[in-house]
Write a structure and sequence with these properties.
Structural class: mainly alpha
Helix content: 55-70%
Number of domains: 1
Order of helices and strands: HHHHHHH
Number of helices: 7
CATH topology: Heme Oxygenase, Chain A
CATH superfamily: Heme oxygenase-like
Shape: globular
Oligomer: single chain
CATH class: Mainly Alpha
């Protein structure tokens, strides 16, 4: 691999501010309170549905999210509009955000109230899964650079960053809308 780690490092660096903003918005929800936790899950569902459709993760979490909402007596909310973006790099960028959210979910699952469902937040990577995903991301970047006139992968990375930023933007919008509805 000519640029081992380059794509994942670029995505991490470029999306730090977006990531922090999303974390701050979701920190407004209390995961040990049934109503607030339901709103948290609804916000995730509004973003996850369109993102999984474009990112096509290997292990979708939408069924687990639907299961948790049903256990709380809640229905799935309407999804947000699918972000506009095309191409393999955009898809990989959106998937980077989704796969990264699994890491945060594992930590958040500890904050969920005792009697509340947590299948969605407990859906973590298999051992070595995050590293394997990052290696696949870098390989996709290298393939993208080889297939086009993008010798150093810069254009591919720029488009992947747009995909990741669009995914973070969807999560931020969903959190804001649930919080504005008085649930955060």
């Amino acid at each position: 691999m000519p640029h081992a780690g380059r794509a994942r490092q670029a995505l991490r660096q470029a999306t730090m501010k977006c990531h922090r903003q999303v974390d701050d918005l979701f920190s407004l929800f209390s995961l040990d309170d049934r109503s607030s936790y339901a709103a948290f899950l609804k916000a995730h569902a509004r973003a996850l549905a369109p993102l999984e459709a474009i990112a096509r993760p290997d292990a979708p979490r939408l069924p687990m999210l639907r299961q948790d909402l049903a256990a709380l007596g809640e229905s799935m909310p309407d999804p947000l509009e699918t972000p506009v973006g095309e191409g393999d790099a955009f898809r990989w960028g959106a998937r980077y955000t989704l796969e990264g959210s699994r890491l945060g979910g594992a930590m958040l699952a500890r904050q969920v109230g005792r009697d509340l469902p947590r299948a969605y937040l407990s859906a973590v990577h298999e051992k070595g899964g995050w590293i394997a995903f990052q290696q696949s991301l870098d390989a996709a970047c290298d393939r993208g650079a080889e297939q086009g006139a993008d010798q150093d992968g810069g254009q591919w990375i720029d488009e992947a960053i747009r995909g990741a930023e669009a995914a973070f933007g969807l999560f931020a919008s969903a959190a804001r809308s649930e919080a504005a509805a008085g649930h955060g």
